[in-house]
């Protein structure tokens, strides 16, 4: 398949490009497009064949449901048969934005989109391109992150092309995404809303709006827990080389990563490090280093994490030592993704 490639301005998107992309969606094709979180792989979410093409392009397991992206709050009514007060409140407060809400679905939503679940995930993105594209297509757009299943989500169009060129109909390139980690997934079908995946809207922000929110950290870290967002059980975000995550205080992390890196270098290994700017300055120049930003700026770390993870794909290393960060605010989503990338290989100090 020949993938059409469009460069598009995110502030002033060319209407001709948007209508071309919307045409492709209406005809059942797959288009990668930017959102404020990560690039999405979009198709008509009500068309089973179009949705099947997404699973095919990503190599995604069929039991992992998709998020339906909409352009207006009123579009929820066709997709959800019940909108509880907590969901209404979240929509009013954080939509458009990086928040996905789980609701009971209507019959309009096909089984393949929800992987047979009785619930549906819905998001109204903040990205102007995303919303105008969905509006023009005139259908809810099912869109997982635009990576091959298991790889880090793409936060720029070059990363989308690396995974999807030749596999989908078109790519819209509007430069890097602002947030860089995916949306927060909140289940509003339970008496107390529960965070199924931490993301761009933080626990603190949800608590401010709702008061009570369930956040079971263990469910997002322990390997043996059955996660409630089906996608959370799969290995994700993993670079090609094994990655070992080091967690602890700043001083503990630095000391341990230095020790581990030195020992691995001495034994003749090619060593990678995924670290903060502060820790990078202590490391030997023999270490292949990707810096995700300064510890003081969680927002910048979120925006750069996946690009830094993908860096190691082109710089062959035998193993990677990664530095954890403080688990507050956006730090929860960042640590959740780093733990998954490490596939449970964690040194806790
Ligand atoms: O920021 C984002 O959410 C991006 C952009 C493109 O919008 N999309 C994204 O989609 O991250 P994806 O497919 O990579 O992740 C969707 C997550 C998965 O963990 C999936 O299992 C969960 O949402 N999910 C979808 N439908 C669900 C449902 N009905 N119940 C529980 N979890 C659901
Ligand atoms: Mg994904």
What report would you give on this structure?
There is one protein chain. Helix content is 34%, strand content 19%. It starts with a strand and ends with a strand. A hairpin with a 6-residue loop joins strand 2 and strand 3 (40-44). It is globular, with a radius of gyration of 20 Å. The chain is built from 13 helices and 15 strands. It has helices spanning 15-26, 48-58, 76-79, 85-94, 111-114, 128-137, 157-164, 203-210, 217-221, 250-266, 277-280, 298-311, 331-341, and strands at 4-7, 31-33, 40-44, 67-69, 99-104, 119-123, 141-142, 170-173, 184-187, 194-197, 243-247, 271-276, 288-293, 319-323, 346-348. The strands form 2 sheets. It has a 10-stranded mixed β-sheet, sandwiched between helices. By secondary structure, the protein is α/β, with parallel strands linked by helices. It folds into 2 domains: 4-215, DHBP synthase; 243-348, 3-Layer(aba) Sandwich (Rossmann fold). The site of threonylcarbamoyladenylate (TXA) has 29 residues, from strand 5, strand 6 and strand 10.
